[in-house]
DNA sequence: GACATCCATTCCAGCAGGTTATAGGTGCAG
DNA sequence: CTGCACCTATAACCTGCTGGAATGGATGTC
C-alpha cells in the first residue's frame, strides 16, 4: 500500500488546521484538490479519517492515530533525503558552507581561496541563510560548516571556533536626529525603537539588541525582519534602528541608511562552526583550519 | 520534496537485484516503467543513484546512503498504517483473530459465540494465516489475538495460554501401503517422505515432523507446502505423508487422503496468544477468557 | 555471426491531479 | 425572513504523468 508523502503532508495540514479551506491556503492548493486528497487517503486506507461538519474537519480516532505517526514517516524521508544529498556532495567534492548575512564579509573570500588551495578539486558552495535560521543550516545538516556571529542559539550542540571580533556600529535612517553625530553613546539609544530578528532566534536576537548592555533598560521593538533587505528597508523607512557589525557599513551601504560607531557596546565575534560528527572529517577540518589561518595569521 | 513510497520500493528492488530487468519482475511492472521510476527518483533528488552498465545497475555512494535509509521510511509508513487500522478496528468494535488452518477447529465457533455473548456489539474477524506465518499475523500486529498450535517461532515475545491438547494422527495417501492399518507406530514412518512446512517456520515445522521424536533418525522431506489445500494435494499425490491433529480427519477429509491414529508421538497443543501490549486491553482479555472458559470449562 | 542480456527510447492510451465555477448546508446579523 | 459568511462537495475541463508493448543499441558469449 503506497502513499505519496504529499498526501500525508496535506492530511496533517487539514488535521492541524481543522479546515480544508484554511489548510488549502497553507499548502498552496485549491480547496477541491485537498478534498480529493483527503478522500484519496481515506479510500486508500479504507478508514474514515475526519468527521465532516459545517464547522470543519475533526479527526476521528483512527485519524488521530495517523496524525500521530505520519510525521515520523516524513522525518524519516527527510533524513534519507539529507543523507543522500550529503553523500552526493561528498562524492562531488563540494563543501557546503552556510553563512549569515554579514557574517565573515571580506574574510569569506580569503577563506574560500585558502581552502581551494589546500583542497584542489574541491568546490565550496556558499549558502546564505535567513536570520530566522541562526545556525545557517548547520543544525539540520544542510551545510557542512558555517560562518556565524556568536553567540547563536543551539551553539552548545555544535563545535565553534571564534575567528575575530569586530566593533558593533549602529545603523540609522539618514533622517535620524543622531545621524549627524560622528560617534554615538549606546545609552543615548536605549529608548529608540530597534529593528530586531524574529523572536525564536533567542540569544542571537538579544545579542543584536544588546539586551545585556542596557543596565536593565527595556528594549523597544520597532520592526521584526528576517532578511538583510527587509532589515535595510525597515531602517530606511524609520521603523527603527539596529546594531550591526562595522563591516555592514561597507557591505550594506544604501541610500537612506547611515552607519555610525557606537561607544558602550561590546564588539561582536565571528566564528566558524561545524557538527560534532565531523570532528574527524578531514575536509571539514581543513576548512576550519583555513578559517583560523586566515583570521589569526601566525 | 515529496516521494511516493512506490518509488522507494522500486529503487530498493533495483538496488537489491542489481538489475532493472530482474527488479521489474519482482515488483510486477515492465522494465521500461522501472527505468522511468529510477530516473524520476534521480531527477527528484538531483542525484545519480546508479552506475549503469551492460552488467546491470550498481549503486553510487549517494545511492547506497539512500538504500540504507529508505527502508526506515517504509517501515515508518507501515507502522502508521498498522496503527491506523488498529484504531479503526477499535472504533468499529472489531476484534481480529488470526488462526492457522486446523488450529482450534470446532472450538473456534464456541469461542466466538462466547465472545459475542460477553461483548455484545463487538464483531470478531477471523483471519486464516498461511503456514509460512506461524504467529498468524500477531507478530506484525495484523491481528489482536490468535489461535495457534504450540510451539511456534517467536512465541517468547508474545503471551500464550495453552487451551487443550489433541493427539497427532498421520495423513496418508489412500493408496499408501499402511493406509489399511487401524493404528500405526510412528517408528514405522521414520523413513517415509514427509510433507513439511516452509523451512523458515523453524520449530513449528520441526514439531510437525516430530523431529525430536525420531531418536535421531533423519527426516525425509517429500514436499513443502504453505497452505492446507496444497498440503492435501501433496499428500493425495503421494509426495509424502504428514502428521496432523486428529481433528484434521474431520475438517480436512478428502478423497485420496486418509487419517490414522499414530502411537509414539506426543499430542499437540492449541493455545491462544496475544501481544504483551494488550495485557490490559479489556476486549482482548475478554476474548482470552472466552478461550479459556470454552477449553477448560470450570 | 547468431544469440542472449542488459538498459534506453518511442509511441500510445488511460488516468490522476489540478483548477475554476458552482452547489448545498448552516449559523449569524440586520 | 433575507442576505451573508463560511464550511465542504461536486462538476467540467485540461494537462501531464505513468505504464505497457515494441524496438533500438551496446556488449559479451558460444
Which strands sit side by side, in order, in the main sheet of chain A? 4-3-5-13-6
Number of helices of chain A: 9
Morphology call of chain A: flat
- Main sheet attributes: strand count, strand direction, barrel closure of chain A: 5 strands, mixed
| Class derived from helix and strand content of chain A | alpha/beta
Helix content of chain A: 25-40%
One letter per element, helices H and strands E, the order of chain A comes to HHHEEHEHEEEEEEHEHEHEEH
| Number of DSSP-assigned strands of chain A | 13
Oligomer: homodimer
Q: Would you identify the regions of chain A where 5 or more consecutive residues have pLDDT less than 50? A: none
The N- to C-terminal Cα distance of chain A equals: 62 Å
Strand % of chain A is: 15-25%
Determine the most extensive contact between two protein chains. A-B, 35 and 35 residues
| CATH architectural grouping of the largest domain in chain A | 3-Layer(aba) Sandwich
Question: What do we call the CATH topology of the largest domain in chain A?
Answer: D-Maltodextrin-Binding Protein, domain 2
Mean pLDDT, all residues of chain A = 88
Radius of gyration of chain A: 24 Å
Instruction: Tell me the number of structural domains of chain A.
Output: 3
Structural summary, described in words:
- 2 copies of one chain form a homodimer.
- With 298 residues, chain A is an alpha/beta fold.
- Chain A folds into 3 domains: 5-86, Orthogonal Bundle (Arc Repressor Mutant, subunit A), CATH 1.10.10.10; 93-165 and 276-295, 3-Layer(aba) Sandwich (D-Maltodextrin-Binding Protein, domain 2); 168-266, 3-Layer(aba) Sandwich (D-Maltodextrin-Binding Protein, domain 2), CATH 3.40.190.290.
- Helices cover 38% and strands 24% of the residues of chain A.
- Chain A has 9 helices and 13 strands.
- The first copy, chain A, has helices spanning 5-17, 20-26, 31-45, 61-92, 106-118, 203-209, 228-236, 248-251, 282-295; strands spanning 50-53, 56-59, 94-100, 123-129, 145-150, 159-166, 168-173, 184-185, 193-196, 220-224, 242-245, 257-263, 268-274.
- In chain A, the strands form 4 sheets. Chain A has a 5-stranded mixed β-sheet with strand order 4-3-5-13-6. In chain A, strands 8-12-7-11 form a 4-stranded mixed β-sheet, with helices on one face.
- In chain A, helix 5 (106-118) links the parallel strand 3 and strand 4 (123-129).
- In chain A, helix 1 (5-17) packs across helix 3, helix 1 (5-17) crosses helix 4 (61-92) and helix 2 packs across helix 3 (31-45).
- The model of chain A has no long low-confidence stretch (mean pLDDT 88).
- The A-B interface holds A 1-6, 9, 45-47, 60-66, 68-70, 72-73, 76-77, 79-81, 83-88, 90-91 and B 1-6, 9, 45-47, 60-66, 68-70, 72-73, 76-77, 79-81, 83-88, 90-91.
- Chain A binds a DNA duplex (30 and 30 nucleotides) through helix 3.
- Chains A, B: Keywords: DNA-binding, Transcription, Transcription regulation.
- Chains A, B: Belongs to the LysR transcriptional regulatory family.
- Chains A, B: Residues 3-60 form the HTH lysR-type domain.
- Chains A, B: This is LysR family transcriptional regulator.
- Chains A, B: InterPro entries: LysR_HTH_N, LysR_subst-bd, WH-like_DNA-bd_sf, WH_DNA-bd_sf.
